[in-house]
Write a structure and sequence with these properties.
Two copies of one chain form a homodimer. Chain A is α/β, with parallel strands linked by helices and 347 residues long. Chain A has twelve helices and twelve strands. The first copy, chain A, binds a DNA duplex (30 and 30 nucleotides) through helix 2 and helix 4.
DNA sequence: AAGAATTAAGTTACCCGTAACGTAAACGTA
DNA sequence: TACGTTTACGTTACGGGTAACTTAATTCTT
C-alpha cells in the first residue's frame, strides 16, 4: 500500500501524475471524480495514488481560493467546567460528521486571549467561527466583522449579535430561579460562584437572580471565588466562607451544579440537613445530578444540543441556506427537592 | 482602524503594498520585521496594514513550504469523560501559549472514526499529531508513518510507539489496584465499566486488575455497560445490575471516579454502608473526589500534566530538541477510606 | 464522407506569500 | 577618484492544486 521509502517528504499530485503517465490535471480530475477520463486512466491514476500513498494537500486547494476551508474555529473559556466540555462535544461531533474540523481555542475567560486566538485562527482562513459569549475586545469585533465569514456567538443569547447567536437568556434564567426561591419562602439567600475579569453569562444570571430576589423583598449575599473554575471544590469552600460570613442564609444558589454539589457535601459534613436547614439550588442540570439521592433544584439546558444547534446553524449558513440571526434553545427550571416546596409558603 | 467597505473579500499583501507605494516584497519584509527598509517605509506600510485591516494568510506561507503549520491534530475519544477533557485542556493550553492550535477530533472510541479523522487532518499539513491510545487501524498506521511529522500517542504508554508516547502503564495500575484490594481482604470483587469495540486503556487496566485478583485467589465479576460514556449514571445502574447478578460481591472497582460516585450513590440509596457492607474503588482521582465525605479509594494521575507533557514533548520535537521516545508520568494508588483497611486482613 | 459534436486529454494562468537574486543609489575607504 | 560595500528596495520564480481554455482523436449525424 505504502512505500516505506517515501517516508521523508510528501507526495504531490504531480508525482502521481507522472508515475501514471498523465498530466496533473487529469490526475486531479480523477481524484475529484469529475469525469472526462477513460476507465483505464482512472485505474492507472488510482493505482499510483495507492502505491505512493498520496494524500491531497487541502491547503493548496483552499489557498487557490477555489474552495473555503473546512476549519471552524471554536473558542471556549475552559474545559474544567463540564458545561463547556459538553457544548464543545456537541459542536465537534456535528461538525465532524459533515467533514469540518474544530480548531480549538481556550480563552481562560479573558478577552485578550480571545483576541489573540481570533487573530491567529483567522490567518488560517477558517470557514467560520463559533465563539463563547457576547463580549469581545474592540479589535476582535473589528476583525470579526471584516473577516467575511459566518460567526456564531453561543451560550449567551445576543439579540443583536455580530452575525448569529445561539443560547439562552441568562438574565431570565437567573430571574426565574430567584423568583422560584422566593416563592419557596426563602428570604436570605446566598450565592456562590466564581469571578473573572470579563463580564459573562454567569454574571448576567446573577444580575437577574438578584433583581428577582430583591424585587420580592429578599436579600442576596454573594460569595465569589476569584479566578477559579466553577467546579466542586470552589463550591465546597465557597459555601464554607459564605456561611462563616453570613450564618443566617436559608438557601444557597450556585453558579452551576458542580459547585452546588460541592456545597451539598459541605453542608452534609456540617450536619445541616437539606432542605430543612438550608436550601440548595444549582444550575445547568449536569450529569452528576442524575445520581443524587435528592433531585437537585436546578435549571436545565441541553448543552449538547446547544453545541449541535450552533454547528447546524454554521453548516446551514455555509451551504447558503437561510438561517435565523438568533436561536433561543431555552431552559427549564427544575424544582427538585433540595429546596423547600413552594406550596408551603414562607416557613 | 478598519474600513467597513472592505467587508467583502480579504485584503492581500499586494493591496497593502500598492496602497503604501512599495513592492509586495518590501511589505512582506516590514511585516516579518526582517530589516532592509527605511523607517519611513515601515511607517507607510504599517499605516496601510492598519487602515485596510490586513491579516496575513498563513496558508500561503505554509503552502509555499517555507514554514510548517502551527496546527497540531489532537484526537480524543470523547469529552463527556472528564478525564479526557482535562487532558485536552492541558494540551491546548500549553500549545496555545507557544502559538500552536489544536485541531480537535473526537473519535468516539472507534478506529474507523480515527482513521477518517487522521486522513482529513493530514491533508491540512499539521505540524504534528497527538493521538489518544496505542491502537490504530492498519491504514492509519501507514498514513502516520508516512506523514513525516511528529506523532505522540498519549494515555496508554507504549514501549514501542509509532514515534513518541506519553502516559502510564494501565496494566500495572490495574494490577496494583487489584493487589491492594486483595490485601484489604476482599475476595469477590465486582468491576463496573463501559465497553467499546476497540481495545483501550480501561481494558488493559481491567486485565491487570483481574490478573492480580485472580492470581491471589480472588474472583472478579464484570459488569460492562455497552457503548456508554464512563460517567455517573452508568456507574449507578451498572452497580444495580452487578448487585442483581452477583449479590455476594464484597467490593466494587470502577472504571473511573465518576462511575464510582454513581455506584456510591446507588449503594447509599440501597442502604449499604461504605466500606462496612461493600468496598468502593474508583480510578483517576477526579475533582469530584475532592469534596466527598470519605476519601475515595482511587488511583491518582495528573491528567492536566499528562496533556501538558505531551504538548511540551511535541514543542520540543518541533524545535529540534532531542526528545525521549517514551515518557511515563506515573500513577499513585490512593488508599482512601471507601474500602476496608488493609491492616485488618481478611475480615 | 464531410462537418458537427463529444470525449479524453493537455496547457496556461492564478491564488498569496517568501526565498533568492538583481540593482541602483548612497556611503566608505585607500 | 575609483572601487568595494552597504542600504533599500524591486523582480522573478515557486509551491500544489484547480478553473478556464485549448487540442487531438473519436464518434455521430445526415
Amino acid at each position: 500500500m505504502v512505500e516505506k521509502t517515501s517516508k521523508n517528504s510528501k507526495v504531490s499530485l504531480a508525482q502521481v501524475a507522472r508515475a501514471a503517465g498523465v498530466s496533473k490535471m487529469t490526475a486531479s480530475r480523477v481524484l475529484r471524480d469529475e469525469g472526462g477520463y477513460s476507465e483505464e486512466t482512472r485505474r492507472r491514476v488510482m493505482e499510483q495514488v495507492d502505491h505512493l500513498g498520496y494524500l491531497p494537500n487541502r491547503l493548496a486547494t483552499v489557498f487557490a481560493g477555489d474552495q473555503s476551508s473546512t476549519f471552524i474555529g471554536v473558542s471556549i473559556p475552559d474545559l474544567g467546567n463540564e458545561v463547556f466540555a459538553q457544548v464543545l462535544e456537541g459542536i465537534d461531533r456535528k461538525l465532524g460528521t459533515f467533514g469540518y474540523q474544530s480548531v480549538l481555542g481556550l480563552t481562560q475567560h479573558t478577552l485578550a486571549e480571545e483576541e489573540n486566538w481570533i487573530r491567529t485562527v483567522l490567518s488560517w482562513q477558517p470557514a467560520g467561527l463559533i465563539l463563547t459569549g457576547r463580549y469581545h475586545s474592540q479589535r476582535a469585533n473589528d476583525m470579526l466583522l471584516n473577516a467575511g465569514i459566518p460567526v456564531i456567538e453561543i451560550w449567551d443569547l445576543n439579540s443583536s449579535p455580530l452575525d448569529m447567536s445561539v443560547g439562552i437568556n441568562h438574565f431570565d434564567s437567573g430571574f426565574d430561579m430567584g423568583r422560584y426561591l422566593m416563592a419557596c419562602g426563602y428570604r436570605n439567600i446566598g450565592y456562590v460562584g466564581t469571578s473573572h475579569d470579563t463580564a459573562n453569562a454567569a454574571t448576567e444570571r446573577l444580575t437577574g437572580f438578584c433583581k428577582a430576589v430583591e424585587g420580592a423583598g429578599g436579600h442576596v449575599v454573594k460569595q465569589l471565588c476569584l479566578h477559579d473554575t466553577a467546579t466542586y471544590y470552589p463550591g465546597f469552600y465557597g459555601t464554607e466562607q459564605l456561611l462563616a460570613a453570613a450564618s443566617d442564609v436559608d438557601c444557597i444558589h450556585y453558579q452551576n451544579d458542580a459547585m452546588a454539589f460541592g456545597g451539598l457535601q459541605y453542608c452534609e459534613r456540617r450536619g445541616l440537613s437539606i432542605p430543612e436547614d438550608i436550601g440548595i439550588a444549582g444550575w445547568g442540570d449536569l450529569p452528576i445530578a442524575s445520581v443524587l439521592k435528592r433531585r437537585l433544584t436546578s435549571c436545565h439546558i441541553s448543552h449538547l444540543k446547544l453545541g449541535q444547534s450552533a454547528a447546524e446553524m454554521m453548516l446551514a449558513r455555509l451551504s447558503g441556506e437561510p438561517v435565523p440571526k438568533c436561536l433561543d434553545i431555552g431552559f427549564t427550571l427544575i424544582p427538585g427537592s433540595t429546596v423547600r416546596n413552594p406550596d408551603r409558603g414562607t416557613a
